[in-house]
Amino acid sequence: MHHSKLFIALFALACTGSSALPSRDAGPASDAGAANDAGSVDDAGMARLDATDPTDGGAIGGNGMHRITVPLPSGGSDEVWIYAAAPPAGADLPVVVYGHGLNVELTNCAPEAGPGGFDSFTSVLGDHAFGVDSVAELLAEEGYLGIAVLYRNKGDGAPGVGRVRVRDHHLRDASALLAAAAWARDVHGQGSDRVAVIGFSMGTWPAMWAGSDAPELASLQAGLDLRTVVLQGQTANHLTNAAEPGCGRGELPIGTYAILEALGKMVDEVRVEDLRGDTVVGELVAELLLPLGVDLFEEIYFMPSDTTLTQCLVEHIPAICSRPCFRAMIARRTGGVMPDDRDLYRAPMFEAADLLCELSPTAGDPGVDHPNPVIRTMRAGSPALSANAMIVPRVLPLFAVGDSNYHEASLELLTRRLVDMDVITPATPVPLGEECEHGSYLSRGRPQCGLDHTLEELTLAFAE
Question: Can you give the pTM of this predicted structure?
Answer without folding.
Answer: 0.81
